[in-house]
Specification:
435 residues; FAD/NAD(P)-binding domain; 11 helices
């Protein structure tokens, strides 16, 4: 059950109440105002709306997609690893009860270069896992239920934005149906191809890896024992991510398989027998016999980073600000870290009676998130290029370095903290506490 209140804290300003939550546009103009406009109703946008509501701030969330279409009842093969710190945030904002039973803890991460000796085995001390694996459909369902139960969130979907005006003291968003929505700040959670970011003239640093990521899931004979595997090949990394067992008791995992762009279509056309043979070859018998249990999907891999994550009365959040290689599973988690920082900054500003679109607040967000986003993006890019160098000599050097990390406990601990999302200046939500 979800409980949200608009009186979670006392401030010197009155928060503008959003109109009640709506799951579908009526087609009739409905003007409204709130504390924050959220453009984009995907996973990151919904987490942001719920986190704001948990602290007494209202939002209007606008998304062009039909929310019903995203709630397919069947597993489509898409799953996400939520690092331990963002998982604490999801629990703190009221999603724990809805999600806990669906999550599979990641208790170890085993990393190797082509299944050769010299691996790293990340196994944190204590009982806290490195992260939790969820099917994306379970995340979508829990978030949709949370949004629907919260009267501080006004969801306009499906709804199309016709115009955005960022005036000196207000942002006004006009929908195609004529509705005019306003707030002191707009948070852009539109994903990689953000039209709002592009219209604001924010440049991007971007390049293609000329690889595609094939995702899916398989049942396997041997239990995964809550271990995630990251196996690096010159053609691209292959990740195996543990999921809860199927109702019939079969063990299962999700996978992310990166292959060269030119080879991806051929792999996608392979029949079940040929694809199974390729999976077994990559896995080296780690989990025994396998069987595909979800449709395959293919996504092009590229790097993208906005040169600035704020503009006048605008903050970029999630993939609108940065989109990285999935090599370490940090993309979605980076977006959740953006949410935690932005919410803390806005709550602090509200307590001081500040305008939530004030340039000082946005500058604080830019400084706080800029370094973390840059360091993670750079690290994933370097790893992608480093492990993509072919040849026995390059492999030998990589394995020697990995063996060194395995033996150096302080360095290994640093990498585990980064994987958990617990490094650096941590927002309170990522520690599991409300702001």
């Amino acid at each position: 059950m979800f409980h949200f209140t608009r009186n979670h804290f006392r401030t010197t300003r009155m928060s503008t109440r959003a109109t009640p939550s709506s799951t579908q546009s009526t087609g009739q103009p409905r003007d409204a105002s709130a504390d924050v406009l959220i453009s984009g109703g995907g996973l990151v946008g919904q987490v942001l709306a719920l986190a704001l509501a948990r602290h007494g701030l209202s939002s209007i969330m606008v998304d062009p997609a039909d929310p019903i279409a995203s709630l397919a009842p069947h597993f489509d093969g898409r799953a996400s690893a939520i690092a331990s710190a963002p998982w604490k945030m999801l629990q703190a904002i009221g999603l724990g009860d809805a999600l806990r039973a669906h999550g599979c803890p990641i208790e170890r991460i085993w990393v190797s270069d082509g299944l050769q000796p010299g691996e790293i085995d990340f196994a944190p001390p204590g009982d806290e896992p490195l992260g939790v694996m969820f099917e994306n459909r379970q995340l979508r369902r829990a978030l949709a239920d949370g949004v629907a139960a919260c009267d501080a969130i006004d969801l306009r979907a499906p709804a199309r934005t016709q115009n955005i005006e960022r005036a000196p003291n207000r942002v006004t968003l006009t929908l195609a149906d004529g509705s005019r929505l306003s707030a002191p700040l707009i948070a852009v959670c539109e994903g990689r191809g953000s039209a709002t970011r592009d219209a604001a003239g924010i440049p991007l640093a971007r390049w293609s890896y000329h690889h595609g990521a094939m995702i899916g899931a398989f049942a396997h004979a041997e239990p995964h024992e809550n271990v995630a595997y990251e196996i690096f090949y010159p053609s691209g990394p292959f990740a195996i991510l543990p999921l809860n067992d199927l109702p019939d008791g079969r063990h299962r995992s999700a996978f992310v398989w990166s292959v060269q762009e030119a080879d991806a279509p051929a792999y996608m056309r392979l029949g079940p027998r040929g694809y199974r043979a390729e999976l077994l070859r990559l896995m080296g018998g780690i989990l025994g016999e396998v069987e595909e249990i979800a449709p395959r999907a293919l996504f092009p891999l590229s790097f993208q980073r906005a040169t600035q994550i704020t503009a006048d009365r605008m903050a970029l959040v999630g993939d609108s600000a940065h989109a990285i290689h999935p090599i370490a599973g940090q993309g979605f988690n980076l977006g959740l870290r953006d949410v935690a920082a932005l919410v803390e900054i806005l709550v602090d500003g509200a307590r001081l009676g500040m305008d939530l679109g004030d340039a000082q607040l946005l500058e604080r967000y830019s400084r706080w998130r800029g370094l973390d986003n840059l360091s993670v993006a750079a690290a994933t890019d370097i790893l992608t290029r480093l492990f993509g160098v072919p040849g026995k000599g390059a492999s030998l050097l990589r394995r020697a370095g990995m063996a060194g990390v395995q033996k150096l406990h302080p360095l290994k601990g640093f990498f585990m903290d980064e994987a958990r999302g617990e490094g650096g200046d941590l927002p309170k939500l990522l520690a599991g506490a409300l702001v």
